[in-house]
Write a structure and sequence with these properties.
Layout lengths: L4 E4 L21 E7 L10 H9 L8 E5 L5 E6 L1 H7 L5 E6 L11 E6 L37 E6 L25 H10 L3 E6 L2 E6 L7 E6 L6 E2 H14 L3 E4 L1 E2 L9 H11 L3 E5 L18 E6 L3 E9 L4 E5 L12 E5 L25 E5 L6 H10 L4 E5 L17 E4 L1 H13 L4 E11 L27 E4 L3 E4 L17 E4 L2 H18 L5 H10 L23 H4 L28
Parallel strand pairs: 6-10, 6-12, 7-10, 12-14, 14-15, 15-23, 18-19, 19-20, 20-21
Antiparallel strand pairs: 1-11, 1-13, 2-4, 2-5, 3-4, 8-9, 16-17, 16-22, 18-22, 24-25
Length: about 600
């Protein structure tokens, strides 16, 4: 069996989870069931009449989830506690409360994470209030004699032969450590099953309480990746250890080139794991939006695409002609909201490909004191573009998409004031620059904005099907949150100019590496409630209960990066709906023997 090398499936700009609420509990949106009593003057002859009445209680459109017509008078909507208090004063209001189907928190389930390691002292891996792991747990905690594992982080092992001698020691003879030196593994593990941590935020953004999807599940880390990449032999060794250790779920935010399943170490290892009852969640890849760009195509894996959440880290670009255009950036420094700076397009330089703002591309081009318009792409990292603008003397950057990325923007921790805008917005900015001899602009920052619409939207980087190895397999299987996800980090985030910061460290990351552990956590919720279900049954429950429409309640299809209806090769069965997976109504099962023909 040929070995292969794989890379992290994240956009390594230090952008990620944890279901962070915004500005504390009073501003956190939850699903409320609101009971109302129609007033005598309300005419409710039709369902539309009743829906219009319910809508009159809501602060804006896009909140209504269900309008009840027969068994009760009321509706379900996404509201904050403050908003519920406000509508409670309206005529006709009776009561409101939160209800769910008791999803649970993943109690008793062990999630094995194959990644770059873990940060054991982070509060997201606190064992406070956690029960001991199940008696079946047989794993180890290899932190070189340090007693850092607990009832949350129950195990950690190292299989990174890139820096080792193959016997648990480094080439220098020192014991290898599962400590995360990259940040990727800490992020993915806390996304799947991190403990509840109040006060999470990244440079003041996404502020709230962080939690993994399954906060009562146990975590075991298998470090199979170093700072550069991950070796197929190490990944197979990690899977080989996770099975007898007693893991229930494997969360694998890794992937590589498409090769026949029998030559793919990851596919072979996960087939054996699935055969022994382990559920496997993997990343679809970050090579979209072109078709046939998938990783992890085997039918026994859950292959997860990436989509946005209904939250923006907002910026606004205002041009000298009065036009305003929305964008995103996680770094939101003090930057004058009244001063208009000269605006220049980097592509006006005579240097080839200067429009992409690569290293050294702005030499000899006057950008001092100016906001520079740069284009996304050309293998120049987004943060490096801002670094080049800053080096050349620019005071700000507008990063515009090329057509292929459409409306997909990312909230990066840039090194200077910046705004990432859509292709349409970038075209408007470039048109303005060309229309006047002295173009000017300013960038203002709006902070964290919940309730963004449309959402979810398939992001441009998310890899697409169909499977090249077997076009009869629909891939990806599902989509989940994978853009600007907030989760645990070993490191302080932000540009060096901020200096040292204090407090618990979190980061934003984007990638299908971030969406896969969301589904690992959801699989843990199902396994906790239905321990007898097979991996195929869990996968079926996730797919058959998925949503194909967005959160607006209007019935609009989930969109892609061009804001057109996303097709099956982008979205799979749809966007995961955690509230439905426990009781999907219909579950299809399959035996491992039925997969053998694919090997």
């Amino acid at each position: 069996m040929a070995s292969f090398r794989v890379s992290f499936l994240s956009l390594l700009q230090f952008l990620l989870l944890a279901l962070a609420s915004v500005e504390g509990a009073s501003d956190e949106r939850n699903t409320f069931i609101v009971h109302v009593q129609p007033q005598a003057n309300h005419v409710l002859d039709t369902a539309d009449d009743r829906k219009a009445l319910y809508q009159s209680f809501l602060p804006d459109h896009g909140r209504l989830l269900h309008a009840y017509h027969h068994v009760t008078s009321g509706f379900a909507a996404r509201l904050t506690q403050r908003e519920v208090e406000a509508i409670s004063a309206l005529p006709g209001f009776v009561a409101a409360g939160t209800r769910n189907n008791s999803l649970g928190s993943g109690d008793g389930v062990i999630i094995g994470v194959l990644d770059s390691g873990v940060t054991p002292g982070h509060p997201s891996f606190s064992g406070d209030g956690m029960p001991p792991p199940p008696a079946k747990w047989k794993g180890r905690c290899d932190f070189n004699g340090r007693s850092v594992c607990n009832n949350k982080l129950i195990g950690a092992r190292v299989f990174d032969t890139a820096v080792g001698a193959g016997n648990g020691t480094s080439s220098s003879g020192r014991p290898l450590s599962p400590i995360d030196e990259d940040g990727h593994g800490t992020h993915t593990a806390s996304t799947a099953a991190g403990a509840v941590v109040p006060g999470a935020q990244v440079l003041g953004q996404g502020r709230g309480t962080a939690s993994g999807i399954a906060p009562r599940a146990h975590v075991a880390m298998y470090k199979v990746c170093g700072l550069e990449d991950c070796n197929g032999a190490d990944i197979l060794a990690g899977i080989d250890a996770a099975v007898p250790d007693g893991c229930d779920i494997l969360s694998i935010s890794l992937g590589g080139p498409s090769v026949p399943f029998h030559e793919d170490s990851l596919a072979v290892g996960t087939f054996a794991a699935a055969e022994k009852g382990l559920f496997v969640s993997t990343s679809a890849g970050n090579s979209g939006p072109n078709y046939t760009t998938m990783s992890n195509e085997a039918p026994w894996m859950l292959t997860v695409a990436a989509s946005t959440m209904d939250r923006l880290i907002s910026t606004t670009v205002r041009l000298g002609n009065g036009l305003t255009l929305d964008g995103e950036s996680a770094y939101q420094p003090d930057f004058s909201a009244t001063v208009l700076h000269p605006l220049v397009f980097a592509g006006a330089s005579s240097t080839p490909d200067a429009k992409f703002c690569g290293n050294g591309s702005l030499d000899g081009f006057n950008v001092k004191g100016k906001i520079v318009l740069c284009e996304r792409g050309n293998d120049v990292p987004r943060l490096a573009k801002g670094a080049e603008v800053l080096r050349a003397g620019g005071v700000g950057m507008i990063l515009t998409n090329q057509f292929i990325d459409g409306f997909s923007t990312l909230a990066d921790l840039h090194v200077l004031p910046a705004s990432h805008v859509s292709h349409a917005a970038g075209a408007a900015i470039l048109s303005y620059i060309k229309s006047t001899a002295s173009p000017v602009a300013q960038i203002t920052f709006g902070g964290t904005v919940p309730g963004a619409s449309p959402a979810p939207v398939i992001t441009s980087f998310s890899s697409r099907g169909p499977s090249t190895l077997n076009p009869g397999i629909l891939k990806p299987d599902i989509t989940g949150p994978g853009v600007t996800v907030l989760a645990a980090s070993p490191f302080q985030e932000g540009p060096p100019s901020l200096g040292r910061q204090t407090g618990t460290t979190f980061s934003f990351m984007s990638g299908t590496s971030m969406s896969a552990p969301h589904l690992s956590g959801i699989a843990a919720l199902i396994k906790s409630k239905h321990p007898e279900w097979s991996p195929a049954a869990i996968k079926s429950a996730i797919m058959t209960s998925a949503d194909n429409t967005d959160r607006s309640g209007s019935g609009m299809s989930i969109l892609n990066e061009q804001h057109m209806a996303a097709d099956l090769f982008a979205i799979g069965a749809g966007h995961v709906n955690p509230e439905k997976v426990i009781n999907p109504g219909l579950v299809y099962d399959i035996t491992p023997a039925d997969y053998i023909g694919f090997l």
